[in-house]
Amino acid sequence: MSNPFVLLSIIPDAANAILDGRKLYEYRRVPPRIMDGTRVVMYVSGTNHAIVGEFISGDPLRLPVERLLDQTIPFTPHPRELIAGYFSGLEVGTALPVRDPLRYEKAIPYAELKMLWPGFLAPQNFRYIYPTEKSAQLYRLLSGLRADTSLQKTLF
Q: I want to staple 126 with a disulfide (CB 3.0 to 4.6 A). Which of 11, 32, 78, 90 is the partner?
């Protein structure tokens, strides 16, 4: 079976910072099980409700929160206090390294996702997308998006 994509629910500001190259780490209290080279597809929550782009993840950094912040905050637009508050109550936090961000030319809105994948539910945090019978159309569409834009070079 092909490797799954990770569909990650993310707020609009964070998605834009990743796609603009200003955010090189995505923080997660409960991270997906991924490894270096995993495609992470961003589902923007809030008022947009659409898939807007993706990135390739490096191996997740899982460290004590203070060490994690020391290593990653300089590479994000976030104030340290904000991310420290996000990890409040946890000893260990996770940051997904962001590589090769790609903004899709056209977002895939929630209504279209429902047509491509009957029964589609937006993830609260993340979900895996496999090329199974239920999600095959969405998987094929997403597979083609990076391939169609492979000639585009990112600036970061």
A: 32
d(CA 58, CA 84): 22
Nearest to residue 92, comparing CAs of 18, 153, 27? 27
Tell me the fold of 5-148: 2.30.130
The per-residue pLDDT for range 76-122, each reduced to its tens digit, is 999 999 999 999 999 999 999 999 999 999 999 999 998 888 888 88
Pair 87, 70: CB distance under 8 Å: no
Q: How far apart are CA 56 and CA 94, in angstroms?
A: 16
Domain parsing of the chain, residue ranges: 5-148
> Is a pLDDT exceeding 90 seen at residue 144?
no
